[in-house]
Amino acid sequence: DDVHIADFPDRASMMEVRLQAQDDEITLLKSSLADALRRIRLHDQLLPLLKQQTRKMKEEGKPRTPTSAPAPARCPPSRKERRNQQSIKMFIRGRPITMYIPSNIQNYEDLKMEPPPERLELDWVYGYRGRDCRANLYFLPTGEALFFIACVVVLYHINNRTQRHYHKHTDCVRCLTVHPDKVRVASGQTAGVDKDGKPLQPCVHIWDSTTLVTLQQIGLGSFQRGVGSVAFSFAVTFLCVIDDSNEHMLSVWDCNKGTKHAEVKSTNEAVFAVEFNSSDSTNIITCGKSHVYFWTLSAGQFTKKQGIFGKYKKPKFMQCFVFSLTGDVLTGDSEGNILTWGKSAADVKTLGKGAKETFQIMRQTRAHEGSVFTLCALQGGTLLSGGGKDRKIIRWSADLAPERECEIPENYGAVRTIADVDGEELLVGTTRNAILRGTFSDGFVAIVQGHVDEMWGLATHPSQNIFLTCGHDRQVCLWNTEEHMLDWCISLEDYGLCADFCPNGSVVSVGLSTGRWMVLDLLTKEVVSESIDGNEQLSVMRYSPDGSFLAVGSHDNFIYIYNVTESGRRYTRFGKCNGHSSFITHLDWAKDGKYIMSNSGDYEILYWDIVAGCKLLRNRFESKDREWASYTCVLGFHVMGVWLEGSDGTDINALCRSHSERMVAVADDFCKVHLFQYPCPKPKAPSHKYEGHGSHVTNVCFTHNDSHLLSMGGKDTCILQWKVIGGGAGDSRERLASASSASTSSPEPASS
Ligand SMILES: *[C@@H]1O[C@H](CO)[C@@H](O)[C@H](O)[C@H]1NC(C)=O
Ligand SMILES: *[C@@H]1O[C@H](CO)[C@@H](O)[C@H](O)[C@H]1NC(C)=O
Ligand SMILES: *[C@@H]1O[C@H](CO)[C@@H](O)[C@H](O)[C@H]1NC(C)=O
Ligand SMILES: *[C@@H]1O[C@H](CO)[C@@H](O)[C@H](O)[C@H]1NC(C)=O
Ligand SMILES: *[C@@H]1O[C@H](CO)[C@@H](O)[C@H](O)[C@H]1NC(C)=O
C-alpha cells in the first residue's frame, strides 16, 4: 500500500537534503584531493627543472629575466590590454575555472548580454500524478478531463485531444476539487522551498475553469507544509481545507471573501478525504488512517463524532467515501469493504439523558481484494468502486448489488480514481500515472501516460518530431511531439540514465545504471547492439555528427569511444579517454567529429583528440576556437553566464544549445527552465525563466528544428513541451559581430 509513502514526505525530503549535502561534500573532497594530487605531480615534474634553473642562475650570478617581461603594474588596464585579454576565471565553490576566450571575441569586456528574443510557451504536459495523490481526476461539461501533475493543472479535451493549463501554482499541486456549479475549481499546493531552502507558504487557488482566471487565493500563511484535501460546499460557498501539518488542521473558508470561517485540529493521523454533506453545509466528513469523523459546524465551532466500528474490525485505512442517494455515507477501506454508515438515535436508556446520536456501521459489503481506493457515485444512485490491488472496477446498484466488473491491464497499475463521462463512458486514473478511457463493454485504452519514477535520460530525434525518455522506473519511452502521444514504451532490467539518437535516425542508444548500454531499433523496438563499459552508471551517450563514433561517458571517470558502422547497428571499441579525476557529467563532439569536450563531477573541462587515439589535449588554450556540433557541457566559455554567482556547481543539471545556435536552455536544480541567449559568456546574464516543474529539472532538449523544447522534472515524473515563439532575425555570429563592434562600454546587465 503506497499510503505510507504519502505519510512521511517531510522526513524523506529532509533526509534527501541531508544526503545531498553529504554527497556534495564528498564531491568537493574528491575534487580537492584530485587537485592536490595534480599539484604534487606537477611539483614532482617541476622540481628537477627548478633546481637546474636555480643552479644556472647562481652560475650566471644574476636573476634571469624573461624575454617578454610584463609591463610594470598600471591601473586600470588600458582598453587595448583588455582587448587582448585571453582568459577569464569563473569560480565554483571557490575553485577557479579558467575559460579561454575565443579569438573571434576581441573585446570581451564590452560584450553585452541580453535575454534572447525567443520565448517559451507551455504547449503540452505529459503525465498524470496518480502514484501518490487521490481524488484528482474530474470530467468537466466542456468535454475536458481535469487533473494535475507537477505544478500544472491540465484541462485535456478528450475528443479534440487539446490541452489547456492552469499554470499559477508555485509548487506541486496535491489536491483538486470541482464546485457543484461545474465551473469553479479549487486546487491546493505543497509549500515547497525557495532557492535557499526556506519554506514557502502553501495555498489554495480557486479559479474559473472556462476562463482560467484566478478568483481567489486562499490561506497564504495559514496552512503548514501543504494542502492535502479540499472540498466545496453545495449550497453556500464554503471551501473546506485540510493541511499537511501534524494536526491536519481542518478549516472552512468563505470562497468569495477569502476569509477563514472556522478552524479545528482534526487528528494526528493521516487524513485522505474531506467532503461537505451535499444537503447540509454545516456537516463535514473526513476519513483517513483508521478513522471516519462526522463534523458539525455551528457558530464557528466544530463538534466531532467518530464513526463507531462496534463489532466490525477497524480497517487500517479508510481510503475514500461518497454520499448515497439517501444521504448516508459509504466508505471504502483497506480491507476491501464498502461500509454503509447510518445515524442512530441517541441511546438514552443505557447512556443517560444527555446522550447524543451516533454514527454506526449499518452494513458491510465485500468489494475488492486489497483496498477500495475510490468510490464514485453516478446519477440514479449507481456506484462505482475501484480496487487498489485487484485493479478491478465494479459497478453497484443503489442497493449495493454488483452489476458489472472489469479489470484494467496490469501495466497501468491499480485504480486510483474514477470520473464519470456520460454514465456509460468512464475515465480511470491509475497508480502508474496513466489515465484510461472506456466502458465496461469495450474495455479501456490509455489517453494519458507517463513515467512513474525519477527520469534523467532525454533525447530528441535528428529529423522527426519524436523524443525518447528513460528513468528509474526502467522504462524507455518514445513520444511524438505533434500527436502528443506515447508511441511505445519498453521495460528494461536496469534503469536508463541517458540516451542519444544516431544521426541516421533509425536507432537510439540508451545508457543504463550498470554500465550496460543498448541500441534500439526505433521501428521494431529490438535491441540491435549491446555492450558494457565498467560497472558504474553511464551519464552520457553521444554520437559524433557524422555518426561514425559513439562516446559513452561513465561514472567510472572514463569516456569510452566506439567506431559505429552500418548506420548505427555495429559497434567496435576504438579507445578510452583516461584523464578525468571524477565522473563524466557532460560531453560534446566538435563539428569536425575529431575532438571531444567533456565536463566532470569535480568541474573539470577537458579536451580530447579522439582520432589521434583519445589523447588528452593538455593545452586547453589551443581548443578555444573549436566549434562544437552540440553544446550540452554546463562548463565552458560559451555558457559561463548561465551560472549564478556563488554557485555550488550542482545548481545546473543540464543545458542544451538550440540548433540555430542562438539560444541555450538550462535545466536548474530549483524547478526552473531558463532560456538564455547563445553564446552566453558573461556572468549574471539575463534569461527568461519558466515554472511548471515540481522537482529539480534533470534535462532539456530542443526538437530537430528548434520548434519546441522538452524539459523533464526528475521526481515530478512530468515532461513539459514548450513551444519556442518569437525570435527570427539574425544569427549568433551576427550578434557577436555587432557586439564586438560596439564601442561604448556596457553597464552591468540587470537580470530579468
Ligand atoms: C472541440 O472541437 C469542436 C469541433 O471541432 C469545437 O467546436 C470545440 O470548440 C472544441 N473544443 C475545445 C475545448 O477545444
Ligand atoms: C446530511 O444531511 C442530511 C440533511 O440534513 C441528513 O439527513 C443526513 O443525515 C446528513 N448525513 C450525514 C452523514 O450526516
Ligand atoms: C575506427 O575509426 C578510426 C578513425 O576513423 C579508423 O582509423 C579505424 O580504422 C576504425 N576502426 C574500425 C575497427 O573500424
Ligand atoms: C539509416 O540507415 C538505414 C540502414 O542502413 C537506411 O535504410 C536508412 O535509409 C537510413 N536513414 C537515413 C535517414 O539516412
Ligand atoms: C518544425 O517542424 C514542425 C513540424 O514538422 C513544423 O510545423 C514547423 O513549421 C517547423 N518549424 C520550423 C521553425 O522550421
TrEMBL record:
Biased composition (Low complexity): 737-752
Record domain EML-like second beta-propeller: where: 455-724
Segments crossing the lipid bilayer: 137-158
Pfam families documented for this protein: Beta-prop_EML, Beta-prop_EML_2, HELP
Superkingdom of source: Eukaryota
Region (Disordered): 53-86, 731-752
GO molecular function list: microtubule binding
Subcellular location: Cytoplasm, Cytoskeleton, Spindle; Midbody
Coiled-coil positions: none
Gene Ontology biological-process entries: cell division; microtubule cytoskeleton organization
Keyword list, A-Z: Cell cycle, Cell division, Coiled coil, Cytoplasm, Cytoskeleton, Membrane, Microtubule, Mitosis, Repeat, Transmembrane, Transmembrane helix, WD repeat
Gene Ontology cellular component list: microtubule; midbody; mitotic spindle
WD repeat positions: 448-482, 577-610
Domain EML-like first beta-propeller: 162-438
Family under the similarity heading: Belongs to the WD repeat EMAP family.
Name the UniProt record assigns to this protein: EMAP like 3
Originating species: Cyclopterus lumpus
